[in-house]
Amino acid sequence: MERKLRMGMVGGGRDAFIGGVHRMAAGLDGLIELVCGAFSADPEKSRLSGEDLFLDPERCYGTYAEMFAAELGLPAGERMDFVSIVTPNFLHAPIATAALDAGFPVMCDKPMTLDLAEARALAAKVESTGLLFGLTHNYTGYPLVKEARHRVASGELGAIRKVVVEYPQGWLAQAIEKDGQKQADWRTDPARAGASCCMGDIGTHAENLVEYITGTAISELCADLTTFVPGRTLDDDGNVLIRLGSGAHGVLYASQVSIDEENDLRIRVYGEKGGLEWHQEEPNTLLMKWPDRPRQVLRTSGPTLSDTAALHTRLPAGHPEGFIEAFANLYRNFALCLDCRLHGGEPEPHYSDFPTVWDGVRGMAFIEAVVASSQSDQKWTPVAS
Amino acid sequence: MERKLRMGMVGGGRDAFIGGVHRMAAGLDGLIELVCGAFSADPEKSRLSGEDLFLDPERCYGTYAEMFAAELGLPAGERMDFVSIVTPNFLHAPIATAALDAGFPVMCDKPMTLDLAEARALAAKVESTGLLFGLTHNYTGYPLVKEARHRVASGELGAIRKVVVEYPQGWLAQAIEKDGQKQADWRTDPARAGASCCMGDIGTHAENLVEYITGTAISELCADLTTFVPGRTLDDDGNVLIRLGSGAHGVLYASQVSIDEENDLRIRVYGEKGGLEWHQEEPNTLLMKWPDRPRQVLRTSGPTLSDTAALHTRLPAGHPEGFIEAFANLYRNFALCLDCRLHGGEPEPHYSDFPTVWDGVRGMAFIEAVVASSQSDQKWTPVAS
Amino acid sequence: MERKLRMGMVGGGRDAFIGGVHRMAAGLDGLIELVCGAFSADPEKSRLSGEDLFLDPERCYGTYAEMFAAELGLPAGERMDFVSIVTPNFLHAPIATAALDAGFPVMCDKPMTLDLAEARALAAKVESTGLLFGLTHNYTGYPLVKEARHRVASGELGAIRKVVVEYPQGWLAQAIEKDGQKQADWRTDPARAGASCCMGDIGTHAENLVEYITGTAISELCADLTTFVPGRTLDDDGNVLIRLGSGAHGVLYASQVSIDEENDLRIRVYGEKGGLEWHQEEPNTLLMKWPDRPRQVLRTSGPTLSDTAALHTRLPAGHPEGFIEAFANLYRNFALCLDCRLHGGEPEPHYSDFPTVWDGVRGMAFIEAVVASSQSDQKWTPVAS
Amino acid sequence: MERKLRMGMVGGGRDAFIGGVHRMAAGLDGLIELVCGAFSADPEKSRLSGEDLFLDPERCYGTYAEMFAAELGLPAGERMDFVSIVTPNFLHAPIATAALDAGFPVMCDKPMTLDLAEARALAAKVESTGLLFGLTHNYTGYPLVKEARHRVASGELGAIRKVVVEYPQGWLAQAIEKDGQKQADWRTDPARAGASCCMGDIGTHAENLVEYITGTAISELCADLTTFVPGRTLDDDGNVLIRLGSGAHGVLYASQVSIDEENDLRIRVYGEKGGLEWHQEEPNTLLMKWPDRPRQVLRTSGPTLSDTAALHTRLPAGHPEGFIEAFANLYRNFALCLDCRLHGGEPEPHYSDFPTVWDGVRGMAFIEAVVASSQSDQKWTPVAS
Asked: Residues of B275-295 as b/e, b for ≥16 C-beta within 10 angstroms?
């Protein structure tokens, strides 16, 4: 790359959570600089948020439409190169569509849209514009998740038989949305979150992780979603039996009422010849399991890792890399690919690996299937492909 | 107690596995002595097995029928006081029935019978004879499992919302029954094991643990059982959605093809006010989870445990107690209760706590329900109560 | 063996701690039966203790001298075969000497004597009588400790460079001996415990573990012992730099004032080619460390263990074996060796492995050296060999 | 702050390790931007390194002297605000001195200088210039290390009795410096590293962590340093008995030959009323230990943490923060304090907390003491204060 890529942001103003993560992740490797934003639906708040970030006040916009128009008016050497969308779910599709229509590549938070139809329309838009689109299913950015995917793909574990993926959290065990907790407020509101709270917010991460590591889609499922906290409309817990196209069977569960669980995404995969286990809260360890020799403890930056793990690692072993670094791997790869698009060249194949609009479509199909299944008396519900 | 209780054993000859565990467990506290046995269907092997155990050759019998008859002929001060049954599943009911008919109390391995009808008949027999009957669902013998039950019962966690119980093993990931592995051989044979391999052998332990700790029965379930290893008739893996009578939802899974998992029974229970987690492979730790204060690490013999945990512990904290000690707690309690039956007195209430014939009935109802559910297109199958 | 070996016990009456452990350990494998005892200096308490254990009242003696005399008077087929000594330290030497003089083999608790001179005299007595003598440095009874020793001996780790052994406990962080806690009372009393409390009671276990696993003696050391709790005479904490005869350097520390540490004996050994780590509170795991391949998690009963580990294991992997089972391995081996002495035959070599009077001499030399070093201004103090 | 602070860097060119960490850490919060550098003693390499970082080629200097002169010539609104020094040890003092003389505040890597005399001279220079000086003892940047310090300071643990700090690494177990490994090359060279390799590079981190958490200086020590790998001059392993001014005793060890240990800094502190434990490789957990209630597991962003921990945390609980985030806390605090110096205002007290030149003096006094002690026959060596 010859210069940093210029990023504009929609959402992520004062009081937001994930916007700051996107900014730290985007900036970590010095490849991307934030140049403008429409940080809030409230223009004054947008301006103040931009001030906090030392942005040119001229480029702190009141609305995303205004931003797209104004940036298009800037010379090519100044104009933003892509948009990062970090709003609540219901705004993803309209903003992303407008950005693509304006010719801006997009990095978008997840779940991608409000429903599957919207997701498919967005995918069609991405295809028709030919622009780059990334989705922040950030857990696939961890080096050892990439290692896990590599080990399955290599055939080292044999045909996969069983998958167990768990994602318990406890922060919604009480009705904190009633006390004005902003993150809880929109996630429990169907109009802004979509058809599911728990399965949409974190179940899709679990689904994405299973499909990323195994390289196989969930083909059918049987779900039991529950709303435990009185007054809620959407699910805050769900248990799902899953079957993968490859013939593997498994369990996927997610919960927001599992008290004192923080962000405990965990996956175990077992094949005919071996197994593996990874845990997001201790992300620098990957266990490898064998029938006839001792369990191995793979470590980020440790010996015998694949190139892909190494290329997504910044520090020597024992220097813990965490959530932000994994998130940054998505932005880094997106940036390297975008730079090739803009200035020519072919990205190193390992750097082409980040979630796309098709992961977003899968996620929305999953949400639709679990919600339908949970309301059905029929045992198995197919997941649209 | 004034003297040791005299135990006879059926099964558990040379090459058996669980018989030796029963003997170590029964003997650990010095309350029970083995005095006779019908250790094998092969009379010579039975005799040799008794010789290994320094038994009087006169009391090493060729068949259980012979043993019951001969022991009845001995004077009251010599005759065995109860029978321990450690054969493969299909022999449990006939032997236990014969023992009860002969007037001998019974300690029986699990699963209790071949099917639910047999289990109910055995329960009726126990009721009609009024004799003591114990079942070795041994995991409930751990002090911290008793603590977990106590904490739920005390209301400390509030109403239970979610239960996750997992029991992966890997030892049947290949068809070792074809190589003459004796433990695998009968467990994969419907004639000797019953309608299920994985769910019968270990799924019932998971079911028993859930019901013991929560104090609530699984009321309905949705199961996906699989036979992964070619050539097998019975399941070697199963995933189950469960609902408890109390309104809690959960997941139960068991597996014998999860490579390199040893005996990884693990349970997490979450209520409205707190949660807990226990793991059989590190049985001396119980995690307590709270919404507003740090996680607590309870330890066997540690501070703030209940009386019931303390009364099932033999060593100071940090001196690991394991599988045999937990198993021995069942025999210890059974012995203390039996002694009261035989010689008068009331057992200390904490010592009345061991699995009974009704736990066996529950287990067989669970097996019958998971097998039926797995073959059904209907989502929920009730568990007979 | 043709019959159980008959054990007599000195000490271990009501209220004692370690006597019960010895009895459970001795009885676990069905090779030893307790037939008599002098359980307390108080004859009535001795009698009541024997009654608790269902012993013949005739064989519950008021003193050990009485016991040795009376048992010698019994016919060979009835008389006890050996003595187990479980009293406070200061009584070990006189009782063991008397037992050996009376012709009885001895299993003795540790530390072996009050001081090094006494230890050497006892060793001379063992040598001159030619009788079997075992010492319960029980931590070497764990299967994975034996595996660790085997791995070092095999050369797999290369020449050993560094050893770190830690033994923190917290139970003496307050002056509980003033409240009549019996275990604390004698351990903090020089007349009954010897020259050291912390280093005598648990530091010697650490020393023994280092020397057992590395196969090398500590040759010199530099100690800083402290008495933290006011009113005590003896150390309740100590830090020691150690050097081994082989050229390895290391750290050994023990503490009884490390609050909330239970019995946290832990050892790490590093050689030129690899390392290992073992932790008593999770005794069924042994970590193997390599420069160029992933860490391995060895497990009791897991794949690739040596014969010696397998021969000291009773259960399949994942069925936790603990403190009592490890302790029982010492008694089992002692019994098998004693049986060969009594009835001819050669013990299986792996079964000859239990701590002897020479381990006791090493332990007393270690205590003497750490106490001398702690009082010295000189950096290094040799350990007598 | 009204605008980002402008940072210049000395060292950290292509192939360097720690320079990249400093850049990621400095940039993480968007408060600091890199504007210039003298990245290498080789001017061409310096230029290329700057190009990699998208810097203005005019501000990629061939030497630090050139950089200081040129930057002084720039207008106040463009000129760099401070210098980050990330060279090998022997260059720290001359560069820092020159920077301070030129009026630039300094952020410097550790150990601070080549020896204690140089450290004292640098401290005097800092005092005389009155300029801000930070030292990257980065492990004190972790939120739970700050929590640990807070807990000790609050008196919750009572008077501290015992400290155990361990820092094993394995990367120098072979003579990789002979194969041109650049990091190993200068660290094993007395001319560039100073009087110690292992104790200088990582032992000082352990010393700093002890003194930071306990708030007390190590007053005397007894060290056994070893050079295990043939051909080396400096120590690659060391064991140290320590005594703190407050009366606490302890153990400090560091090693670079502990095979397969990554960066395993770990500390345990025990007081009269409680204890704590923290481990750098799992930095989001802090264990609290009590005599009479269960161990508590504190977690980054979890309940009941102090303000200081919260103010050094960026993400919700369960979203792992790692090495870079902790390192960034030093830069963030340094930047906020520097901004107040430059533009007025008082920093929030929690943000004044970063290691200073006096931590560097302590570190050099520690190195001098351990090296002297290791060569001495005298037991205790005082640490200069």
From this structure: bbbbbbbbbbbbbbbbeeebb
A vs B: CB pairs below 8 A: 126
Residue predicted with more confidence, A385 or B75: B75
Q: Which of D23, D264, D318 sits opposite A281 (nearest CB)?
A: D318
Cα(first)–Cα(last) distance of chain B, in Å?
A: 37
Q: How many residues does chain B have?
A: 385
State the Cα–Cα distance between residues B42 and B62, nearest whole angstrom: 7
Q: Based on DSSP, count helices (H) and strands (E) in chain D, helices before strands.
A: 13, 14
- Tokens 């009584």 belong to C91
Q: Is C55 helix (H, G, I), strand (E, B) or coil?
A: coil
Q: How far is residue D195 from each of residues C327, D233, D376, measured CA to CA in Å?
A: 48, 9, 15
Residue B292 is nearest to which of D288, D293, D303, comparing CB atoms?
D303
pLDDT score of A16 more than 90? no
Q: Closest chain A residue to B226 measured between Cα atoms?
A: A249
Residue A251 to residue B251, Cβ atoms within 8 A: yes
User: Which residues neighbour B214 within 8 Å (Cβ) at sequence distance 6 or greater?
Assistant: B152, B160, B163, B244, B246, B248, B269
Cα distances (angstroms) measured from residue A224 to each of A236, A376, A380: 11, 10, 12
Interface check B304 vs C, CB under 8 A: no
Q: Is A272 on the interface with B (CB under 8 A)?
A: yes
DSSP for B105-140, written as a single string: -EEE-SS-SSSHHHHHHHHHHHHHHT--EEE--GGG
Q: Report residue C108: phi and psi, to 5°.
A: -125, 140
Residue in C53, C262, C323 nearest the CB of B30: C53
* Residues B270, D110: Cα–Cα separation, whole Å: 47
Q: Do C170 and D376 touch (CB under 8 A)?
A: no
H or E, element range at A223? strand A218-226
Torsion-angle region of residue A111: left (phi > 0), alpha (psi -120 to 50) or beta?
beta
- The CA distance from A148 to the nearest CA of chain C, in Å, is 15
Contact B318 C281 (CB under 8 A): yes
Interface test with D, best of B144, B276, B282, B297 (most D CBs within 10 A): B297
pLDDT of residue B2: 87
Residue A233 makes CB contacts below 8 A (sequence gap 6+) with A188, A189, A190, A227
Q: What is the pLDDT of residues C9-35, one digit of tens each?
A: 999 999 888 999 999 999 999 999 999
Give the closest of B3, B263, B315 to C323, CB-based: B315
- Rounded average pLDDT over A338-360: 95
Which residues in chain A touch residue D256, judged by CB atoms under 8 angstroms apart? none
What integer pLDDT is reported at residue C17 of this predicted model? Answer: 87
The beta-carbon contacts of A120-125 under 8 Å, at least 24 apart in sequence, are A120/A361, A121/A93, A121/A97, A122/A93, A122/A96, A122/A97, A122/A357, A122/A360, A123/A357, A123/A358, A123/A360, A123/A361, A125/A96, A125/A97, A125/A100, A125/A101
A112, A119 in Cβ contact below 8 A?
Answer: yes
pLDDT averaged over every residue in chain B: 97
The residue assigned the tokens 């063991």 is: C96
Q: Which of the residue ranges B374-383, D174-183, D279-288 would you say has the lowest mean pLDDT? A: D174-183
What digits encode the pLDDT tens for the residues B274-325? 999 999 999 999 999 999 999 999 999 999 999 999 999 999 999 999 999 9
User: Which 8-state DSSP code applies to residue C384?
Assistant: P
D230 contacts chain C (CB < 8 A): no
D299 in B contact zone (CB under 8 Å):
yes
Q: What is the pLDDT of residue C16?
A: 86
Structural element, H or E, at residue D269: strand D266-271
What's the pLDDT score for residue D205? 98
Quote the mean pLDDT of chain D: 97
One-letter identity of residue A357: V
Q: What is the CA radius of gyration of chain D?
A: 21
